[in-house]
Amino acid sequence: MTKLSGDEPSETCRLQQPVKLQPSWEENNLPEDELNFRNLTMDQASLEVHAPRDRWNLIYIVFLVHGIGTLTPWNMFITAEKYFTTYKLSQDYIGYVFPYVSSFIQILTFCSQVPNVAFNWLNIFVQIGGGELTTRIVYSIGTVVVCFLITVFLAMIDTASWPETFFWITMICVVVLNMANGVYQNTVFGMAAKLPGKYTGAIILGNNISGTFVSLMSMLTIYVSNDQRMAAIYYFITALFVLFVCFDTYFALPLNRYYRHHDLKAKKLALEQKNGIGGTEKVPYLKVMNQCKLQLYNVFSVLFVTLCAFPSIQGSVQPNDSNFFLKQPYFTQVTCFLTFNLFSMIGSLVATMIQWPKPKYIWIPITLRLLYLPYYLFSNYQVNEKTRVLPVYFNDDLTYWIVSMTFALSSGYFTSLAMMFTPQSAEPKYASTAGMLGGAFLITGIFSGILVSFIWPWAVTHIGY
Q: What is the topology classification, in CATH, of domain 51-272?
């Protein structure tokens, strides 16, 4: 037998010695059972045990930015309507009356909202772009960027000799862009659902900021350049900048310990569920929908009522009092667009600080918002070149403006609350799916409200007594 030296431990002694952890872990003095995570790195295990803080609200700001980014494409094209109808497709530019100019906004809305709704729902049931939620964002943002690059290129070149081709290329871009944006928007809500409710509220706040941002950028680009072509180029390049910021912040998310902590918790819940049932169960969509059906109704109802009136009715309400300090065109710009964007943004911001009423009772004030529709219909809503036969009962301009403030404030506030409550209504392991369902009902409410809004011009010009 070989004699061992005094300072050389035997193999048996070495096996009996406790395993030394890295210094950072030893300083934590964690219990052994908390460190015994299978298939987890030490850093991941630490994240499971110790919940980090969202320092400087970085993750909140990231989801706020993505909220801006998800609605920027829609807002950009809607706000740029005059660029298409009075420049690229105008009689002065192409030499004849283009057949689709009068219905351009309706065609644009159809090409935007139908694929957006379809792919919002499809993204829930089909893993478009892969199983990872964040992976889908890379593909969807990339597609939207390509569509905007094509739009900028079309703005730079002379299309007077082929307006039909320009029109249909633009509409194809809008369709493809909104297919990708449907996936993007729905996925962002799924990601935020892994975190506390205020992060879903951040997306809604970003959505509302987007309208204000796009409106200001539209006015700024027109101010910077009187040339409609150059103004459009600056305008659409701004959208690219916003999307690139969204793209970059996506890559920053996995680097943040606060986000990784909640991401790991969500993955662990999913893994435990999969292992517990042999890895064969699929997500019970009907069960999840049943668990959060009240909040899904709330999400749909808020956006449905909002889009029934804004901007279809509000944008055509005319002042009654000639002495009112706001005259056209400022009356509509202020009481409709500026008021709605500003107060809905304030409503979303308030919802991150105050959550009232409780999830069980929020449906009551949301349902009461239906009363806004008859109020607006019986205001001085006028249809161009048609005679209104429905009587006007509400003709005080200041009261109308105050009501519009409450309409916008309640829209932003209740949309944020309902979207925050939706993931909380489902089991934690299904929170991400519930968040995506909330996003799908949100865009479905928007689409349904827009469809119903086409009835109002006929109603006020044919229904009277």
A: Growth Hormone; Chain: A; (1.20.1250)
